Every structure is written in structure tokens, then in C-alpha cells.
Amino acid sequence: MHRNPEKVRENIAKADTEDLLDRVTAFRAGMEPEGLAAIEAELRRRGVSAEEIADHRAECEEECLFGPDGVAYKCSLCRRPAVADRWGWHRLGNFIPLFPRRFRYCRIHSQTDG
Ligand SMILES: [Zn+2]
Questions:
Q1: Ligand 1 centre and the CA of 86: distance in Å?
Q2: Distance from residue 100's CA to the centre of ligand 1 (Å)
Q3: Residue 28 has what DSSP assignment?
Q4: 78 CA from centroid of ligand 1 (Å)
Q5: What is the pTM of this model?
Q6: What is the pLDDT along the chain (114 residues), one digit of tens a residue?
Q7: Which end of the chain is more exposed for a tag (fewer CB within 10 A), N or C?
Q8: Alpha helix segments (H runs only) across the chain
Q9: Distance from residue 80's CA to the centre of ligand 1 (Å)
Q10: How far is the CA of 95 from the centre of ligand 1 (A)?
Q11: How many CB atoms lie within 10 A of CB 80?
């Protein structure tokens, strides 16, 4: 995969602080070292302390669902880390049930969906 450092920086600068926190905690194991360093620098710039990052991480380790690679699963509806999963029907065109699949939900979607 080719990476464009400019694009990466731009992406980080535009991201929500919570999104960045998720990336250096829940999704940390799947990140490249340069990406991690850039995000941690951005978080420091925004005034997020190492302690806050550690808190976010501890919370995530307790709540999030992790895959065998140590990377948290993503919500089926957004890109936050998943905290709950449920079986549901994979649907064709939203109404014809095709096969059952596992859906994962973040903290927000696990409360609003179903
Ligand atoms: Zn979600």
C-alpha cells in the first residue's frame, strides 16, 4: 500500500479527537508506527494528556471486542470500536434475508439499534 504522508497528516488533522483516541487504543495493533506517532503528536497538540489516552485505553480494553490480531472489531454501522455483537440477517436490497451474519455495534449503536 502506498501512503502519502501529506494525506495522512490531513486526515489526522481533520479527525475527531475521539476518533484519534480510538485509533491509538482500540485499533493500535493494526497501526503503522509512523501513523501512531503522528496521531499521538496531534493529540498532544490538542491538549490530550498521556493520562487521558491511558484512561481511554483501559476503558476500551474492558469494553471493546477484539479480534485474534489484537485489533478491536469495528461497528457495522460506523468506524467506532464495537462493544457488542448480535446475529442478524444479511439482507439483499434491505428486505430479502440472505444469510445470518454477525453484526457488531459500538457503544452508541448498541443502544439505538434494536
Ligand atoms: Zn457505531
A1: 13
A2: 20
A3: G
A4: 4
A5: 0.83
A6: 557 888 888 999 999 999 999 999 999 999 999 999 999 999 999 999 999 999 999 999 999 999 999 999 999 999 999 999 999 888 888 788 889 989 999 999 998 644
A7: N
A8: 5-14, 17-24, 33-45, 50-63, 107-112
A9: 6
A10: 21
A11: 19
